[in-house]
Amino acid sequence: MTPFLSTLKIAWRNLGRNTKRSALALLSLALAQFFVLGVDGFMAGYEDSLRDLMTGPLIGHVQIHAPEYREKQSIDLLIDDISEKRKILANTQGVERTFPRIFAPSLAAKTEEGFTAFVTGIDFQAERQPGGLVEESSTTLKAGRLDLKVSPSSDSSEEPQADYGAIVGEALAKRQDLKVGDQLALIGQTVDGAMAADLVRINAIIRSNLDIVNAQGILIELEAAQSIFAMPNQAHEITIRGQDAAQASALAERLRQLPALKSVEILPWEKLAPELVQMMGMMNSATWVILVFVFVAAAAGIANTMLMSTFERTREFGVLLALGSSPRRINLMLLLETILIGVLGLSLGTALGASLTLYLGQVGLSMADLAGGGGQDITDLSFQGITFNFIMHPRLRPSVIEQSLLAMGVTCLLSALWPIHFVNRLAPTEAMRK
């Protein structure tokens, strides 16, 4: 047996000399690694939820507007030649879907009394896709049929009949006592300042994750809005869904280089929601602070174990030195003991932390339960006009496993430096008297 293997065997046996102390050191490392993966997985899942929340139907990954539209919100600040721009965008790398939209504050009336509403012209077929205003994951059909086609009316009266279909939000429908089949008169302003007026028929009532749709929303086809408000082949906004929200800035920069888009403003979601970027940065900083404390606690635990073990074996080390063992071999033995505890503890912590994070990532984690609301019927939360689902899915990041293993490994090695320094200064004759 080589000297290294014999030293390794002795180091392994030494761990069993005080099983309680070795077990405590092992568990402290395992818990630290478990906590690191658990906290990072929770933060990664929470970050994903926030990003999905803000880059969903309302904002998307990138938005295109006429210059100054976001500041002034004027109805006459329009993007021209929408159909051609959508063709160009469809052939651009990184663009998955485009959603042209028209926003027109209007007065709506079912009877003689009117109410304010927010008419939104949409490409209905496109908006049914992921990232759209009426996609399945963010919309619940409460009544009617989810489309904007107008069926012939069975009403034989001579009253004017609507040419366009509409979808309204649930809260607006309850507040104004709107039913499927009701006709609404829409009165607004065209681009040139003239009065815009037309009839729409309610085809569906929906509950949306967007407060603006629920409380004030009247959705109509894009062509209908263009006709009513005199915006031929124009829109106020093109919301773009890319392949990856993390690449939104690169996608926006790529779009700015297109000659057909030189005259419009193109912004990624980070610019549209800077408060979210700031919040995510604060979360990352808080995560690192927590992890530093975890590493310090783990280092203190393993260092304490090794120091106590070294002090208790001072006489033994003196005998070994007197019998001819070199300080280098004793140092190697102490280092191997630390490494063995580290390998076992980190393996256990990684297995438990990764397993739990992967499991919660599949089944989801109720933030309402974590907040103490498990006994109440709490399912969502409104944030900046968007409904946020309380179910969060932690995400395991392989890079964090590698980084934590490296950091914990270095922590274990550093914790062995003081015991090694103690042995190097040990005089055999003095040590044997202790």
> How would you characterize the largest beta sheet?
6 strands, mixed, barrel
What's the rounded overall pLDDT mean? 83
> How many DSSP H or I helices?
17
The unreliable regions are: 374-379
Spatial order of strands in the largest sheet:
2-3-8-5-7-6
Terminal Cα span: 32 Å
Structural class: alpha+beta
Question: C-alpha Rg, in Å?
Answer: 33 Å
In the residues, how many domains can be counted? 2
Secondary structure blueprint with pairings:
Blueprint: H1 3-15, H2 19-54, E1 62-65, H3 69-72, H4 82-90, E2 95-109, E3 114-122, H5 124-127, E4 139-144, E5 164-169, H6 170-176, E6 183-189, E7 195-208, H7 211-216, E8 217-221, H8 222-228, E9 237-242, H9 248-256, E10 265-268, H10 269-272, H11 274-312, H12 314-322, H13 327-363, E11 365-366, H14 367-370, E12 380-383, E13 386-389, E14 391-392, H15 398-415, H16 417-424, H17 428-432
Parallel strand pairs: 3-8, 5-7
Antiparallel strand pairs: 1-9, 1-10, 2-3, 2-6, 2-9, 4-7, 5-8, 6-7, 11-14, 12-13
Helix pairs in contact: 1-13, 2-11, 2-13, 2-15, 11-15, 11-16, 13-15, 13-16
